[in-house]
Amino acid sequence: MTEHSFPDLLIALVALLLATKLLGVLANRFNQPAVVGELIAGVLLGGSVLGIVDPSDPVINALAELGVLVLLFEIGLHTDLKSLVKVGNEAMIVAVVGVILPFGLGYAVATLLGLTAVPAIVAGAALTATSIGISARTLSDLGRLHTPEGQIVLGAAVIDDIIGLVILSVVSGLVGGAAITVMGVSVTTGIAVGFVVAAVVLGSIVIPPVFRLVAQVEASGTLGVVGLAFAFLLAWLASSAGSATIIGAFSAGLVLHSTPQRSAIEKATTNLGHFFVPVFFASVGAAVELGTLVDTKVLAIGGALIVVGVAGKFAAGFAPFWFKGDKALIGIAMIPRGEVGLIFARMGLATGALTSQLYSAIALMVLFTTFVTPPLLARKIAAAPRDADSDRPGEGGIDDLVAGAVREKSAVPVNPADGEVASPKEINPPE
């Protein structure tokens, strides 16, 4: 890894921010989610094309990780836990089937293609988790995050990540030569699940009074700063407890969802997210090594993993047979592996369980599923009738943060007397 000077970092950020914004807007013009443009921007700026952005650079990697935390915190802020609980059974069955099927199919095809046991297990494990960042971002872009289907996907992706953490821990021990025990797996599972439950239960009791006190501090931006600090604190606590930082950030958002101060926290998070979130998606795209696509072995293994990876997650959308909504939409939204799949691949490469070829094959699967999901969802939703439960994209909060829609801000006037956004009745008074 090459060390870069501060001026090099500055020019990389200039290129990254401008490219993600321009290509995000261009994607919107072609009726695609902005995330597609941001991923393409990353590919163009990465080592395979222009070589301006190095996703392995410690600073770029840290900024990308912050982008994930900000995005997941914002998603948590807009997630009604009661709505999530309502689709809990559906989300659980989608998550469990969406782990078992891809893992089993991935291990089987990897073995048939000549991989030994440990690399085949790593390949299968890389197929298990769904990228909550990609799925939630795209559904928000398209105005479906708060529908029953969107809530099932969100819940299933969270459960997927928890199961994925357990699998990652087990696989890490396996490639390191450690013995896999029922007790070890149970402890890992208990930590991951227990953290989310404890954070939500205890946080819902302790945090609201704290933020009532913070709200009394007459200093601009105080609520937003404290809210973000709380998200980063829970992310750190989650990591320290053996869970994932994204689980902590999402839990922080869940806790603050019902607080009266949510809108002020959301505003600060949205403003920060305009910088950090595109860095994350561009870094995923920059990890693409286009040169590996000419290697026949990489193409064979990667292609097989793509087929079983897409099929397994899509089939999982139909697992809750009693659900009357759009199962195909759920199945498509569960396809992307994103950053979680890359974590498995990097772990396998670092421990020697994967060769560079096998790593490229898994990375090819991860990136293909990440790139293909947004346009597939866009086509699926465009072909479906819009109902009253749908979101309206681009109206503040998570939509403002992730949609990238081109719209006139002046359409919502501001009351100069108090600086507040005028209500719909003030904008359009009844006749």
Report what the structure shows.
This protein is an all-alpha fold and 431 residues long. The chain has one domain (6-404): Na+/H+ antiporter like fold (Up-down Bundle), CATH 1.20.1530. The chain is built from 18 helices and no strands. It has helices at 6-29, 34-45, 58-77, 81-86, 88-112, 117-126, 132-141, 148-175, 182-215, 222-240, 245-256, 262-286, 296-316, 327-333, 338-350, 356-383, 397-402, 424-427. Helix 3 packs across helix 7 and helix 8 packs parallel to helix 15 (338-350). The longest helix has 34 residues, at 182-215. The protein is globular, with a radius of gyration of 21 Å. The model is unreliable at 392-431 (pLDDT under 50).
Helix count equals 18
DSSP strand (E) fraction? under 5%
Major beta sheet, specifics? Answer: none
User: Structural class of the secondary structure composition?
Assistant: mainly alpha
As a whole number of angstroms, the C-alpha radius of gyration is 21 Å
Helices and strands in order, then pairings?
Layout lengths: L5 H24 L4 H12 L12 H20 L3 H6 L1 H25 L4 H10 L5 H10 L6 H28 L6 H34 L6 H19 L4 H12 L5 H25 L9 H21 L10 H7 L4 H13 L5 H28 L13 H6 L21 H4 L4
